[in-house]
Amino acid sequence: MTLPSKQDRVLIFDTTLRDGEQAPGATMTHEEKLEIAEMLDEMGVDIIEAGFPIASEGDFFAVSEIAKRTQNAVICGLARASVKDIDRCWEAVKHSQRPRIHTFIGTSPLHRQIPNLTMDQAAEMIHDSVSHARNLCDDVQWSPMDATRTEHDYLARVVEIAIKAGATTINIPDTVGYTAPRESADLIRMLIERVPGADEIVFATHCHDDLGMATANALAAVEAGARQIESTINGLGERAGNTALEEVVMALKVRNDILPYRTGVDSTKIMNISRRVAQVSGFPVQFNKAIVGKNAFAHESGIHQDGVLKNPQNFEIMRPEDIGLASTNLVMGKHSGRAALRAKLKDLGYELADNQLVDVFVRFKELADRKKEVFDEDLIALMGEGSTAADRIKVKFLRVICGTEAPQSADLTLTIDGVDTQVTQTGDGPVDASFNAIKALFPHSAKLNLYQVHAVTEGTDAQATVTVRMEEGGKIVTGTSSDTDTVVASAKAYVNALNNLIVRREKTKPEAV
Ligand code: KIV
Ligand code: ZN
Question: What lines the ligand 1 site, CB under 6 Å?
Answer without folding.
Answer: 19, 104, 143, 145, 171, 173, 175, 206, 208
